[in-house]
Amino acid sequence: MLLARVSVPVPLGQAFTYSVPAGLELQRGARVLCEFGRRRVVGVVLDVGEREPDVPLDKLKPVVALVDPEPVLPVELLDFLLELARYYLAPIGDVMRLALPAIERSSARALAGQAELAAVGRMVRVARALALPLPPEIRGQARAIHEHLLASGPTEVAVLAARFGNARAAAKRLAEAGLVAIEEQAKARDPFFAVPAPRDTPPELTPPQAGAVHAIIARLEARERGGYLLHGVTGSGKTEVYLRVVERALALGGSAIVLVPEIALTPQLVGRFRARLGERIAVMHSGLGDADRHAMWKSLRSGEVRVAVGARSALFAPVEKLALICVDEEHDGSFKQEEGVRYNARDMALLRAHRAGAVTVLGSATPSLGSELAVREQRLERLVLPERARASAVLPRVELIDLKRVGAGPSGHRLLSLPLHRALEQTLEQKGQAILFLNRRGFAPSLLCEACGKVIECPSCAVALTLHRSGRPRLACHYCDHSTPLVDQCPACGSGRLSEEGAGTERIEQALTEAFPAARIARLDRDVAAGAKSEKVLDRMRRREIDVLVGTQMVTKGHDLPDVTLVGVLNADAALSMPDFRAAERTFHLLVQVAGRAGRGDALGKVLIQTWQPEHPAVALAAHHDVAKFVERELEDRRELGYPPYRRIALVRVDAVQEARAREVAAKLANLARKHAPERVDVLGPAPAPLPRLRNRYRFRFMVRSDDRARMRPVLLAIARASVDRAVRVAIDIDPVNML
Ligand code: ADP
Ligand code: ZN
Ligand code: ZN
After folding, report:
1. Where in the sequence is the domain holding 148, given as residue range(s)?
2. Which ligand is nearest to the CA of 260?
3. Which of 92, 332, 546, 718 is the most exposed, fewest CB within 10 Å of its CB?
4. Residue among 390, 395, 556, 597 whose CB has most ligand 1 atoms within 8 A, to mutate
């Protein structure tokens, strides 16, 4: 019997089987209307075929109707999503949600309801008939409109109104009966529309750029799949390489996807793409509203636009003839989604491109160890850009400052050491700009009671509250939303002797303002600027309205600020102490990236790295820009310790409000895992997570590890299928990035 497996948007997220009525032609990837319980929902056909039903015949329901004649997803994308779901053991419904904009997966009723939503601004309302038999009570005008829509396809409501008298009311009635969908169709509006993008003149490529472009283009022209690691120092012109190869992919009739870390998706970057590719790109951004996202999606789906630029979700762009995926800053942790479907867009870019027969270009100044190993094993080919692209720009000089030996400068603040103070003075004198990096926002990371020795903690999490002074003074948890007014007494013992421990960006900003009263000082972190607002600060920096910018991670990524001559890293060790096997790798990447912000223009740059451990390889080798040596050492360590990229790991996280229940389930699942584990699969733990309590939930975890991914699968499936106490949450994180 002819059956269809359909992914329906319900919380269970599985696929369900429906029978296909005779005469209904279904294609994979098409949307259909199905009954689900007493509701009608819109699902996506995953596959259609003759087979035995897996449900009793009297339970089997037919597909009610085809929503649109053309599949909503290209088959290549659909197959990729199915494989992604399998890889991450994720429910297919949740995975489909990654690829379909809200409106495309909404229920029949919601589709009709869109009519109301759509009646705003620049949207055009479009009516579309669903291929359903019309009930007899639909007569006259309404019947004529339905027939017209079936015959001539989706039509603007305004056009219907001009043709049929009183069409609006009739269309609304049809929509309410679930016979017609009314959707808004917006003209694709670029969220970065404010970016002025005069056409640029492509620069002449440097010889290494030309070599890289040539190699990639040869593959594109041969229509062969292949993966490249574009290893180029900061400022070596990797973006120019992406631009050239994307243009070529377009010229060859293909489509391209460019992924960048969320934080790097700035108007400046988009402007560079726009200047070269004009209206041929769609920018996909988490800040997009549903309507704009939908418009972008449609322009890609229709083939009107064939390049998607965006953060990780752009990987699911519904383009046909995918020829190329570029992943910029491929080492960046933000390609991993940490909730819902925990996928890694960098890894999955390789998978999608491979399946599509496309080329992947992974670019970085500090490649991930996974990419380094892949080069050694010849799964990726390395292309090197060894020097900065602009003739005048050379890599900055880096000096280490040992905080154990060097005291505070005139500001009296330890993290503004004397050498750093002097360097700032000099930079200001020479009218240069400086960036100071400290990965801690707030004023002080904790409040310590000097009487009882306790640190004031978040009531819901096992972490210290951070003191914030700017704006409303408060104590805030950086892991949950908790925030309380500043206290002047210890909540545990009542003592008033509270000491503000350590320094965050606010405190440094204040100390700088006092030490350099004539300088224009600004701060950039999540408290002053979320998302697009950070660009305002960077714009002021670019216009030279700021002399010294102090900030968190936000100041380290990808910005091209040619007048920055001094970069100071206030505490290089902060990230080293994390209980995470990637702590050294992250620290190294961070230091090389932040150092890369200096000296991008004509003046020579200088970088000062303050550290308590100048001899630590992650610090010492970053100071020498010695990526190769660091990689060598770190790979050796990983091999010895049995960590990625040599072995695969999956982290099983278990949490619950009641500690005992979480602990029990973690133990039970770990035992189950041990029972199913074949040779060469280890199960480590369970143990409390490094952050043992978050948002009022106690957290435990254990690790499943093997040198062979396939061997882990039965173990992970057993865990995924185990039934557990409903009050306990279990998440399986495959190839985890965040180990906390
Ligand atoms: P990366 O992405 O490798 O850090 P960018 O692409 O931001 O480097 O390039 C750094 C700077 O060099 C930019 O200002 C860019 O315009 C410039 N640039 C890139 N390629 C060339 C070239 N071939 N000739 C001159 N300048 C170039
Ligand atoms: Zn106390
Ligand atoms: Zn908290």
Report:
1. 123-186
2. 1
3. 718
4. 390
